[in-house]
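Table 4 source record.
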Amino acid sequence: METREDNFRAIALTVLLHAGLVLSMILASWFVLPDNQASAAGEPMQASLQFSAADLRRAKQAVQNSPKPAPVAPQETTPPPQPLPSPNPQTSDMPLQTVAQAPRDQPDTVNQQAIDRNAQLKAEQEAREQEERIKQDQVDLTEDVARQQEVERRQRLRQQYEAIKAERELAERRTRMEEQRLAQLADAQPLPTQAPTRAAPTPRAGNRGEDEGLRARYIAALNATARANWNTSAVPQLIRCSVRFSQIPGGEVINVEFTECQYDAQGRESIERALRKTPMPYSGFESVFQSKVTLTMCYPEEACQR
């Protein structure tokens, strides 16, 4: 590719060429070969070629007005080719990829936004489902605990029922055995006779009734002992409760049964504790001792007797 320096050199050579032509014409006029003609008389004729200053200016002007060659664009120098890197030896067992991968499609912005929105909705749906599963598991666990507690409560009630039933059966067996023993003692021993002499008048236990017999006093003593031991804070007023208990000689109560009683469990328990708290009266009442006695409990006593 031609450079600016080459253009200047061409112009200079053109100017020198024209100048050389002019100079050669001048020199040619100095060295003219003589003609081989016959000599003639007279002075020889001489001719010379002369250039004026105007001619030189016109020639110089013509050289300057000559068309200049178009400037040539600078040629870009191509860098020398770089040596190719030497291939590294393959160290992996995986085969080299011989087919180029297909170009990936540029994702559409709108479709990508829709995909992101769907992914977000799906994630929110999964989070809600997970939360619902956790709540359901908690509800199931609570129900399982409640069922287990109910089973344990029923087992405890069953055990208590079995224990009470066993105690009642044991008490009934003891009652039957004591009744049999009392019957045997009654058959073996005759009733004692009272002395004809009258004892000194002493205050006797009673219920302000008209029956002054020993049996009436015995029943009144039993009733007084039961009422003295009775805690009436948990029983309703003016409600009667008939209770039948079994005792052995000495006054120890071994069994309690309620025949007609409108008290609740707490009220009945208070009566049973009163009967079992202390032995019933026995000394002095051996002749009228009763193994089974029925009492009517009511509070307050004065109001119940009206």
